[in-house]
């Protein structure tokens, strides 16, 4: 469930980041702002390009989390690497956000970070999440009973060995 919540949060965040950087690009172009003599069109295009890159990365990580949550399996190695990268980025952005934006934005970033890290830890190094699978205990008990029944049948007098 945490993986699905984190996936939805990252997809929403991808949309928000794209809209923010698209707005920055439009404002820079309309105001003819430049950084140390750079062409405003370059700054605008850079903001838009970074917005697209960030949105694709966040949406991809969100998709990895949605698939992991839907399948109840740990993400593959590449997916885990993406999630670790996004976790580090969220930690750094959270530290910067406190001073620049405020505590509310910091809390949102840390909540998403907590969901991502919880998903990585809950699924462990590989396979399904920790805990017994449905019906797993019943299969183990049946296997023990079958083994004990086979031992008694082989040790009985008059029983024929199975070839």
List keywords for this structure.
163 residues, mainly alpha, 0% strand, elongated
For the sheet with most strands, the description reads: none
Total strands: the figure is 0
Give the helix proportion (percent range): over 70%
Oligomeric assembly: single chain
Question: Structural class of the helices, strands and pairings?
Answer: mainly alpha
Low-pLDDT ranges: none
Amino- and carboxy-terminal Cα gap: 51 Å
Overall geometry? elongated
**Could you tell me the strand content as a percent range?**
under 5%
Q: How large is the radius of gyration?
A: 27 Å
Average pLDDT, all residues = 82
Q: Total number of helical segments?
A: 5
The SSE string, one letter per element, is HHHHH
Q: Could you characterize the architecture of this molecule?
A:
With 163 residues, the chain is an all-alpha fold. Helix content is 78%, strand content 0%. It has five helices and no strands. The chain has helices spanning 2-31, 40-71, 77-100, 103-123, 136-155. α1 packs across α4 (103-123) and α2 (40-71) packs across α3.
Question: What is the gist of this entry?
Answer:
The chain is mainly alpha-helical. 78% of the residues lie in helices and 0% in strands.
Describe the secondary-structure layout.
Elements: H1 2-31, H2 40-71, H3 77-100, H4 103-123, H5 136-155
